[in-house]
Amino acid sequence: MNKDSTAPARIVLGIDDLRALPGATHIARTSREGVRLLEEHRDVAIDELWLDHDLGGDDSIMPVVTLLEEAAFNGRPFHIGMVFVHSANPSGAATVVRSLHRWNYRVRRATAD
Questions:
Q1: Three-state DSSP state, 90
Q2: What's the rounded Cα separation, in Å, for the pair 86 and 51?
């Protein structure tokens, strides 16, 4: 099957301290790297964003969630096809899903591998 060479490349961002996330085109391992990664893709359509809640030590995904919330509050939400929350932390994952859903991001809980 021939692929259309004019089709834009999919952008799949992942923020996770441990998982390989084989489908991701870019991976950040800390919340600071995650914020930077999203800022680098600010005006680009992101097909998928994969988020892990716990990022090692005291770090969590919440600074990234805050960035997404503030962007939506300011009327410039990030253009993301779907946000997948794949955390093994059920309470943290529920918080992320609730927060992003409130700001009309398409978000879904995914199973952590």
A1: helix
A2: 6
pLDDT tens, residue by residue, 87-96:
889 999 999 9
pLDDT above 70 coverage of the chain, percent: 92
What's the chain's average pLDDT? 91
| Angle between helix 62-73 and helix 31-40 axes, rounded to 10 deg | 30
DSSP 44: S
Rounded to an integer, what distance in angstroms lies between the CA atom of residue 31 and that of residue 86?
15
Starting at the earlier edge strand, list the strands of the sheet with 12-15.
Answer: 26-28, 12-15, 46-51, 80-85, 107-109
* Strand intervals (E) in 21-91: 26-28, 46-51, 80-85
Q: Please report the beta strands in 22-79, taking only residues with DSSP state E, as ranges in sequence order.
A: 26-28, 46-51
**Claim: this prediction has a pTM higher than 0.70:** yes
Q: Which residue has the tokens 């005006």?
A: 43
